[in-house]
Amino acid sequence: MIKSLLNWSIITFLSFPFHCAVICFSSNIEWYERCGKYFSCGNVTNVGYPFWGGTRPKVCGYPGLEMICEDNATAEIEIMGLKYQVLDINQSAQIVRLARDDLVEGICLDQFESTVLNTELFEYAHGTQNMTVLYGCPAPYDGAMSSPFTCKINGVNETDAYVLEGDVGPSFCNASVLVPVLGTLVDQIGNLSLSQIVRKGFKVKYRVDDDGFCSECEASKGRCLFDPNNNETSCICPDGNAGYPACSKSITAIAASGMFSFFF
Questions:
Q1: Is 113 found in the same domain as 15?
Q2: What DSSP state is assigned to residue 122?
Q3: What is the mean pLDDT of residues 216-244?
Q4: What is the distance between the alpha carbons of residues 140 and 137, in angstroms, rounded to a whole number?
């Protein structure tokens, strides 16, 4: 559960020695300024918490939600070892539209890996539907949604592949790959190629701020960052103090120096 920033009392701050293991700024106000920078790349712009990357330091986002700007043109994120292109993001709804990087390049894969989400961070959004791509199948294959197409598998050319609706195992085929797509496009299989549908991506919802803590923080002109000590979202205010849970309820973090440290 995401909670508040640093549940420490002033006495604890004055009595306990803190150290920065990786990076330490001279004041809390610098944390506020650093986490005010947004990630932008290509069509994806002004992305804030819980994401980090580029000019946004790691502490300004949630672990596992680093965005990378590939070739200064394409925003990407890695989930469970697979790279995804970030097509767009709705931060108010916490919805991201993703497309698998390997499938965007082509449906005939070198490695047959199904799409798997980190369920601690993501869940499929409404309107996302699973399809299964079967490779190396005997012809014909009953129940397929499309005509067979060919892929080179294990050095064999002209191997039949099919698309089925839902999560289906390989059965008599050599391999199967689970591919989420936009549900509105499923009926277009046949009119559109599978490559065209996959490039449109699918939607996921990120699950980092379910209790609205960060929204309340930002509404009070605070900025969210990640407190690795307590493994939770934190709120820092323009004056450098901690917000609990928002800057209208600011807490004086350290009476004498106005400094606190984050651990990595």
A1: no
A2: E
A3: 89
A4: 8
Residue 43 phi/psi, 5° resolution? Answer: -80, -10
Q: Which helix (H) or strand (E) holds 192?
A: none
> How far apart are alpha carbons 243 and 228 in whole angstroms?
17
| Residue 220 and residue 143 share a domain | no
Q: 140: cis peptide before it, omega within 30°?
A: yes
Say whether both 170 and 238 belong to one domain. no
The DSSP element (H or E) to which 245 belongs, if any, is none
Q: Could you report the per-residue pLDDT of 143-178, keeping only the tens digit for each?
A: 777 777 888 776 656 577 888 888 888 888 888 899
229 lies in which domain range? 10-40+211-251
Q: Is 131 left (phi over 0), alpha (psi -120 to 50) or beta?
A: beta
Which helix (H) or strand (E) segment is 124 a member of?
Answer: strand 122-124
As a whole-number percent, the residues of the chain with pLDDT over 70 amount to: 79
Instruction: Say if residue 57's pLDDT is above 50.
Output: yes
Measured CA to CA in angstroms, residue 254 lies from 104, 238, 251 at distances of: 51, 15, 9
Which 3 state secondary structure label does DSSP give 173? coil
d(CA 36, CA 127): 33
Distance CA 83, CA 50 (A): 18
Helix (H) or strand (E) holding 198: helix 194-199
